[in-house]
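Q: Structure tokens for this one, please.
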Amino acid sequence: MQIDAAAPSDVAQAVDCLATAFAEDPITGFLLQAGLNYRERLMHFFSLLARARIALGMPVLVARATSSIHGAAMGNTTAPPPWSSELEEEWSRLELATPGFNDRAALYDEIAERSKPPMPHYYLGVIGIDPTMQGLGIGARLLKSFCDRSVSDPLSEGVHLETANPSNVRFYERAGFAVTGEGSLGSATLWCMFLSHRSRHDA
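A: Here is the predicted structure, written as tokens:
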């Protein structure tokens, strides 16, 4: 299994993998309203995020074996530039097609902002593995590869993320993350977590 940067040609396969991985995720289910046509909205959501981040040079990583992609992770560096007007317009269409999205996203953002670290950091927005490949260490390798990019950036002092899956909290804690805050996201709890690179800067 190889972890490397995604190319535009990888987006369709990576998005399909992520949509399967997030089929029952509390965060995307809350934001995009699980139910009728949920997978279609989920794929559009991940496709937009992946295409925007690749275009801006933000971290988009895939776990591949030969021609198949079995996992993906993506997020932002310390200072992501704005999206293109075309992608912003496409995002607005997604919002309009998902009733109540802006109100739910505002609640999500309010919880996340309260616990976001003040120092420059990378943001891990999405990480997902093909459910049939769970237990093989792919998620841990994707996480380490994303965090390694943050460590190698002299401007970054850590990695921030959110999760609403209790088992994920333990997974991230084993990797060195600590819970910095939490809040209610519908019927789920949203945990905000941070991995500090302070030991690197103090060395």
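A few notes: The chain is about 45% helix and 25% strand. The chain has a mean pLDDT of 92.
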